[in-house]
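Quick start: read one record
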Amino acid sequence: MNQYKSHGVRDTLLDDPATDLTLRLGREELIIHHRYELTGIINELVLGILFTVGSVCFFWEQWMTVGVWLFVIGSVQLTLKPVIHLLRRMHLKRLPQSAPDLSS
């Protein structure tokens, strides 16, 4: 039995609060499923835009410096890809106060 409220989506990992991000907007809620996967998709989209605009900047000499900076920013974003994948595989979860302390 699923203990979480169903939102009309298949009752699978989509309703897992460990992978969901819920934003409350007044009386409404925005539920983002698989937040790390979504972060990776947004990162790749922005990365593609940066490299495309940076490439176009190289057509005009006065825009080359902007193009170089867009490439540098895009290169930094490329290093974020494996970090996002790593975070997706590992998730730190806070245990309730009643959980036994195993560090002793």
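The radius of gyration is 20 Å.
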